[in-house]
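Progress report, Aim 2. The chain analyzed during this reporting quarter is listed below.
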Amino acid sequence: MIVDTNALSALADENLPIITILSQAADIDLPVVTLGEYRYGISQSRYKSRYSSWLDGLIRDCRVLDIDQETTSNYAEIRLELKKLGKPIPTNDLWIAALCRQHSLPLLSRDGHFDAVPGIKRTGW
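Predicted structure tokens for the chain:
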């Protein structure tokens, strides 16, 4: 299961529904985009050290999904599909959606705009 930034934040805060969902997932996958967004957020936190250490530990137990040539093709396709539907989503979320489609994995996120992306299954909480 691919984890969006809002789900990662909830996991860091020990949100019970997130823990339950992820405990049932075969794998936890972290897009580099999610890691960038999360690191940006914790860089401004007064708990930077604690969250950074927590993230480093989590990364050891997860697969980090990098952007590659195949991802860029999925990105372009999704962006065009959403443009035709008149339902654009934020750029970082386009990259996350492209990784979901590329790896045929569901997404854990509170962002309902992912529901407009054809071929993406979102799990909320």
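The beta strands are 2-3, 29-31, 63-65, 107-108, 122-123. The chain has a mean pLDDT of 97. These observations will guide the mutagenesis work planned for the next reporting period.
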